[in-house]
Amino acid sequence: MKPEEVKNIDFWSELVVNTSRSSGAGGQNVNKVETKVELRFSISESKFLNEEEKVVCRLKLKNHINLEDEIIVTSQESRSQLKNKELAYKKFLGLLEKAFQKNKPRKPTKPSQEKILERLKAKKIAGEKKQNRGKVDF
After folding, report:
1. If pLDDT is split at 50, 70 and 90, which confidence band does 8 have?
2. Which of 5, 6, 82, 121 is 20 to 30 A removed from 101 (C-alpha atoms)?
3. pTM for the complete prediction?
4. Distance from CA of residue 28 to its chain's centroid?
5. Which residue ranges form the domains of the chain, and what is each CATH number?
6. 48: Cβ–Cβ under 8 A, 6 or more apart, which residues?
7. Which residues partner with 18 through β-bridges?
């Protein structure tokens, strides 16, 4: 799957949405309304991802996956549950896009002549410093 294709799929049918009381600003509203949103997406039970894509998700998003093989995304930035739901969904899509992005191959570069000379000069100074630590003859 390409990163651009992630936005075309409607994952809502496979997401489990939990709400809870949010922390932070909001006054008395914080104690009454469940505005924090938690989205759970089970990788192993997904019908939208094939086995190869599931493996890629598990490798690239291993820090976001719990023991039940779920990606968990939370949002509590807004005072509105609807906005938090949208923000969490955007975060979720961003994670999937990041997982399916191909890494660019690194092109090895040679250090410049100036950097080489600077390194050798630093080594020379360090060597002289150690040389001067010896016993002093009077």
Report:
1. confident
2. 82
3. 0.70
4. 33
5. 3-100 (3.30.160.20)
6. 9, 11, 14
7. 38
